[in-house]
Amino acid sequence: MSRKSLMIAAVVVLVNVLLWSLSNRPEQPEPVFNGTINGMSFSPYREGQNPLKDIYPTHEEIREDIRFLKGKTRTIRTYSSIDGMEVIPGLAAAQGFDVVAGAWLDHRPQRNEMEIKNLITNGQRYRAIRKIIVGNEVLLRGDMTVPELIAQIKRVRKAVPNTPISTAEPWHVWIKNPQLVQHVDFIAIHVLPYWEKVPIESSVSWVFERYDQVKRAFPGKHVFIGEVGWPSNGARWGWAKPSSANQARFLRRFLTVAEQKGIDYCIMEAFDQPWKEPFEGIVGGFWGVYSLQRQLKIPFQGPVRDTSLWLYQCLAGLMGVVPVLWFLRRNPKRSFGSSLFFAMMIQAIVMSLVWSVFAPVTGEFLRGETIAWLLMMPFQLGLLAVVLINGFEMSEMLWIKDLKRRFAPIASALGGSTLPKVSIHLPICKEPPDMVIQTLDSLAALDYPHYEVVVVDNNNPHPELWQPVAHHCAQLGERFRFFHLETHPGYKAGALNFALDQTDPAAEIVAVVDSDYVVRSEWLKELVPHFERPSVAIVQAPQDHREWEGDVFKTMINWEYHGFFEIGMVHRNERNAIIQHGTMTLIRRATLEAVGRWGQWCICEDAELGLRVFQKGLEAVYVKDSYGKGVTPDSFAGYKRQRFRWVYGAVQILRQHWKTLLPWNRSTDLTQGQRYHFWAGWLPWFGDAVNYMATWVCIYWTIGMILLPGYFGTPIHLFLWPVIGAFVFKLVHFLVLYQARVSCGPLQRLGAAVAGMALTHTIASAICKGIFSKTQPFLRTPKCEDRPALMRGLLMAKEELALLLLLWLSAANLYYIYRTSNLDILLFMAVIVILSIPYAAALFLSMASVMPKGFTILLPGRSMPQHQVR
Which of 244, 582, 598, 783 has the most CB atoms at less than 10 Å from its CB? Predict the structure, then answer.
């Protein structure tokens, strides 16, 4: 291991330790609480018990809980005096507790009567009852009027005259109902900053401000904080975030100050109560100081961390060193910057995985959330894989000096008379004759001694389209042969196989050109000599385009195309893994015959043929100079059809060849680098399919949050951050690599990014159809179409427009209901907006394709240089 590699590995380890420790260090020393809590709300329900279902704890279970709390609190507050709860004052008195006894009052008169009678009986029987609370938040719920509640208070006072009596309401209810204060002996206020959306940082000061406000409003009355606390789990409410760490922070701070000021209070509550979740949400079950299993949930001493498992997370994160060292060992000659960049990418991915794996524990997931986590993990792994793939491409393409396979035009060592004969195949189908004739004229001007041109027009019942081409071929001479096939199977691959049958037996090289390409005269002369090496089976030049300048739509898609040939193909060429394209390609004829000719079953016959060539251990050469230019699609619909064909064909290829692409398959001569690029090159398209699924999940989830809020809470942030992170990194990856590798300006880069995003829905549709079907008709990419009408601009993006409106309506409804006070809702809204960006891009691009040609918002840019080797 070199010194450079050891230094990079050390940096990775240091960054891992620092990030985990810094992100989990205590923000500030929290006060230590060693005393006894003044009072706790006491509901003795255990797992499976639920008063809403008439399942109550036994007297023995209540006795066990009271004994459990011995020494932990001085006072127990009860809420009910029936259903077995009437025994609590007696059992508590036997253990030396003070009791704040309550009666639960609501809109049911008969039940209220039972509560009052038992409360009076206990109040008369037990001296341990120091306070009596008649009703709990009765006015807040609207179950009684103020006069009705006062009447019940008077009734209890008359029966139990020597015990202070009140009712319990949130602090603001007392402020709004001062007449109630005249009929109570003390004021029992509930002060729960979580429900008021108060952030943890100011929660304790807020509690005491409310306490002081009530005391100022009613001087002379004793104020008892009947409920105060913080939940350990549940959805964020405004700026208030439930967590065990925040519960510990709140209680330690509050208890310390309350002890110093001698305030009378009761903590909400002793034990977690999951039965409250149906009407309070998940958070309702997690207010306890102790868990449902009677385990202390928070530390009253020592540091408070967001997770006590951070050290284990840190150690797990160190596993990233293993792939980092493997990568450094396999790439010893890489530059320091390239190696460090990708090593940090590997470590970032490993840390993200650790964070996700630990999330059910550190995030205190409920059972349903854990199931959702299990279902979502494969998709998160897919997103992380896409990020890593993009990072690997950046690590090689930003440090271009590390590249080893860069091919340039070469002059043949052979004399002109000994150069191999080339058969140029030109398949056409329903193309404008003038465009094809332009291509034929450029082929006739080639500076090469030995070549022929075989033109095959297939599946074209329109004589007015093919007859002018046939006539022009006849005028160009014997080198040009024209064939018209009224019907012929196999689409383009079928036409190419037919052309191969008509090829001159002396031809050693087959070239393929699309019908819209105007080629340079040097094409064959400068590229055919690469075949002098016997290992070379394919020589590929990039696709390039013309007649796009001054047109917004064509400018955007032109630069989007360029990115692949300036970045993706150069990267793949490093491992002899380029994608063979159906134009500007040369292939050794013997190889073409040996591997089984063009595959008529696949709508991307060119890429599929290239893979079969690589399986034979042969070499492809990519010369990055432009030797021919075609025309771009004229409409957004044509642009989408072309990309759909490419993506669907890629899925077909993977379905057919996935076994040979497995790393351990030794039945072919594919290298591991080639296998990697054929998987990694197309995996990001599957990421677009995941985004499409996420779009519908967000739409349905928003509907659930609006219509069924009791069942659809705020999505867990674990599922939201990866979507945001993957989108941001994808955009950064695109713009950074374009700036480094593609000769266009900032506006062209932005336009290319918009054009790429506009295809997200098309790509997702092609992936889904490719997975669930085996065949798809060959979709031509029409060229030289008439400009569509404005309405057609909307119709070409109708699916994207519908999804865009649904997403924006979802975000608008969330904003209307929740505003911006809830960070988790804001995060969810951000995800919805991010998911909508590709659909907005599609609408913009579609409308740009119908704008008048003189309309331009982008700089004209520059075409690909004729001779450019980096």
Answer: 598
